Structure formats: structure tokens, C-alpha cells
Amino acid sequence: HVFIDGNDLPARLTTQHRFTIAETGFGTGLNFLAVLALYEDLQRASPNSSREIDFISFELRPLDAVVMAAVHRTFPALATYSAALIDALPPRWPGLHRRNFADGRVRLHLIYGAADSALQQADFRADAWFLDGFTPAKNPSLWSADLLGEVGRLTKAGGSFASFTAARIVRLHLTVAGFNIEKRPGFGRKRDMMIGRKNGPAQPAPPSVSGVVGVIGGGIAGAAVAAGLQVRGVDAQIIDKDTHLAAGASGNRLGLQSPRLAVDHSPFSRLSADCLSYAAWCSDRAGASRASKVVALDWPDREAVRHAKFRQQYWPDDLMRPMDKDTAASVTGIALPSGGMQYDQGRVVDPRALVRYLAQKSGCYLGCDVAEITRADGGFHVITADRRVFYFDRIVLAAGSDLGWFHKMLAVEGIPVDITTGQVSQVPAVAALSWLQAGLSFGGYLTPAVEGWHDLGASFDRTGLCRLSAAADAANRDRLPAALARLMPDPARYRARVSQRASTPDRGPLSGRLAAGLYVLGALGARGLTTAPLLGDMLAAEIVGTPVTIDRPIRQVIDPFRFRMRASRL
């Protein structure tokens, strides 16, 4: 009655291909379940429809799954949708949490934290709002003039809102924010409710992205962008010089997903937490997770100092949990020389399985070594070394360590890219570590044994030479705390894999538009398994024109041209 009919959603979702709903107050998620049910009803009526919904919700105090499920049981007709939501509920730390429903055609963007500050840092445009923040008397912060002014800014001309409340002061704030207000009969004992339309002519839907997007690079970055495009109904084709996916740094046997947090809660730190939430969920869905926790040891000294600072701050337990030595040993299953920080959402993953999962709906042109890219017919011709020619309407550069070469070829300037080499050692299973059940991080990393081998990594060579080195195996072992290093067998028994990584001087990734029709996702350094799934999804949203919900300060620190902009301010 209030939110679905008040925003005229059945009719509007029938005629509008892409639709964005925003909400103040996720609460028990019932409004989202109602939207899921409506979406499925409309799809049954027109099964060939390509409609998509982005549902963006702000919540300061997220409820846990037990409470939500108990409330949902009052609505048995929503049981299927409730089960899907409960299964996908993210951890409750502040920031963005992305989840997919209905094969990615209904995309949930849960933003935990104070709505007023989050809205100030947002740049999406909503077609409809659910203003559901309890009564102004009980929750005035969600009905302030400043917050409702941001609602107005973030609403398309002709967009709508609906609300249970009809309080005079709220009507005034929304009028100032640019809405034409109408009172309507409320529901049940509620006498009045309120709806409104944003002043100005209704804006036509942006044109759909047509044609095919070529994604150059078959590693974790390229696969993540391709997955984001596919769920938004855009054909993505991966092109890579190697004969199989994940042939570069994404092809290691095992790797860790864990955040790199900072005591000052910098945009890079918040990006890391946002990315971990989505990456762990993707890995679990892909069947790529091999262990479900990561413990960062108080080792070496620089990590111990950083963790000591963390212990003086408040961090949500489901993001980072301080542990003493005994607790760390209990969690990991082995004796450890120090305590550390436990990341419950950290994962030990099979990168190749994750890449295959993300790329599964995309076409792949493998063994295609790109020699030239030229503009042609409003798009791009991609010419390979053996003179095959592909046409793409748009291009995404996700070429890992080849990124600098593509920038040079396309005359993209002002984006410094560094290349380093990393060697991962594969260590025969160690009896003393047979009970290890979490990933260990200590400046390097150690995984539990999978198929008879631990993975121990990774070296860091700035020369850029990509060759196996016995010295790197020994260095990987010696990076361990001494008590663990003594358990390792002779490095002569190790296997190893070496690959190159791209990074930037500030160690931040590159994600965004380079020129008309040309985009980049790369320079992910040693944390691509953590950052690529969300950044790829968000870059796909930018390309297609659906909401990008990482906040403005984070978008600024991953902007490909940030180095040029910083230099211009000096």
C-alpha cells in the first residue's frame, strides 16, 4: 500500500527497463522482499522481459539473521525470498555490501552506517524512494532538512517517493528538496501517508549499452568486469594472449582474501573492507573457498605495531577480532608464536576456480595476443599478432602486468604503473601443520595443505624479471616467524610458480574511464583476489549507467587520473 503502490511500481517496472529504488532504513528487509516478490510476479507475466532493479538501502543498526528470520515468518508468502535474503546477509560492519538476487537482475546495495553522511558521499540517481525511518519524533535524524535535501539531489527528475509519515515538517523539507507532495489515505490505523514526485519533466531512461564490450585480460580483474556486465545484460567477451584463463598472477594454486585496514580509516582502508565483503561471498558461491578465516599474526615488528594501534580502537568483531596467542592457536588449529587479528570473512581461495566462475557466462577468445587497438566505426578494432581482427563497441583494459604496455599503445598518459615479480612456493604437506585450518598472514602468507601442498608466498622483486629462483623459495620460508620456519622442509623440495603484478606508486588500484568507450581495471598489486570482484562489478555499473555505490572519496582514490590531478594541484 505505501511503498509499492505509493511509487506506482507495478506499472513503472512494466515499462522501464532499468529501475533504481533507494531506501532509508533497511530494518528487517521486508520492503526488499516485497520488491523481490513483485519482480518475480512481473517476470512470470512477461518471462522475456530484461528488467533489472538496483535496490540501495541505508541502515545504521543492521539486525542479525535470527531476528530478521523471526519477523519474516509472519509473512509465509515471502518464505522463498526470505530464505534467499537470510542466506546472502552480509557481515554487519559499516560500508557497502553488494549481493545479487534473481541471477543478478535484482542487485542489493546495503550501505551500513549513518544515512546522512553516506548520502552526502553518494552520486547515484534513484527512480523511487522508500522513506521508511520510523516516525520523525522517534528517529529525527532520518527526517532532517539536510538528509531530505540529499534525497532530492539523488532523485531523477520525475522520480518519486512514498512514506508512512505525513508530518508537516517532513512535507516542508521534501517540498524544499524539490518534490510535489500529495497526501493519501494511510494503511490500517494510520490515517495519512505521503507520496511525491520530483519537479521537472520525467527523464527518459538512458540508452541501453548496445553491442559487445571487449575485456582484455583473462585474470581476476577481467573476469570480474565481465561478470558485472553479464548480470546487467551486456555481452562481454574476454580476450587474452594465453590459452587458458587465469594464466598470470591469478593462476596461483591458492591465495588469500583479506583486507588491508588502516588506523585512520582512510578511503583505501574502507575500500578494502567493502571489497572483502563481496569477494568472500563470491568465493563461497563459486565453490572456490578452501578455508573460511584468515589470521594476521603480530609478526613482523611493523605488523605488531600496527595491530597494537588497532587494539586501542573499536573495530566490529566480524571485520577484525584481536586474539592473544592461545586464542589464535585455537582458531587456526596449530601452535603459534604470537597472537594477531582474526578476519572472519577472510578466505583461502582457489583463484582459478573463482576466475572460471566469474567468467562462465562470457565468451572467451584465448590465445589471442593483442598487437594493436584502433578506433573504428564508433568502437574499436582489436588486431592480434596473427592478424585476426575483432570489433568491440567498448574496451576494458584488465591486462594485469601488461597494463603499462597498453597505456603506451593507446597514448594514455599520466598513469604510472610499476611491475613487480612474485614467486609462490608450494611446500609439501607438513605433519606439524596438518591441523592448520585458516590462512596465515605475516607479511607473507601460508595456507592449509590442499591436495598435499601448502602455498607459501610471496616474494617481491622490483627488477621485473619473471623467472623462478631458489633464493625466493628460501626467502619465503625465512619470512615466517622462526617457530614456523623451523617446521618447513628444505626449500630444495618446494615447487614454485612465478608471475608478475602491476601496481601504482600509492598502491591503490586503477578503475574507471580513460577515454570515450575505453575503461581500465588494474594495478591491483598483491590484493586482486580481494579487490577485483567488487571493483569489477562497480566498473561494469559505470559502463552500463546503473548505480555505482562505492562512495565518492573511494572513487577519487581509485580514479585512473588521480596522479595527474594531484600534480596539477601542486
Describe this structure in words.
The protein has 570 residues and is of the alpha/beta class. Helix content is 31%, strand content 27%. The strands form five sheets. Strands 3-4-2-1-5-6-8-7 form an eight-stranded mixed beta sheet, sandwiched between helices. The chain has an eight-stranded mixed beta sheet with strand order 14-15-13-23-24-25-22-26, sandwiched between helices. β3 (95-101) and β4 form a beta hairpin. The longest helix has 20 residues, at 267-286. It is globular, with a radius of gyration of 25 Å. The model has no long low-confidence stretch (mean pLDDT 96).
List keywords for this structure.
single chain; 570 residues; globular
SS element count, helices: 18
Beta strand count: 28
- CA radius of gyration: 25 Å
Unreliable stretches covering 5 or more consecutive residues: none
**Helical content band:** 25-40%
Quick check: average pLDDT?
Answer: 96
Strand content: 25-35%
What is the rounded distance between the termini? 56 Å
Q: Structural class given helices, strands, pairing? A: alpha/beta
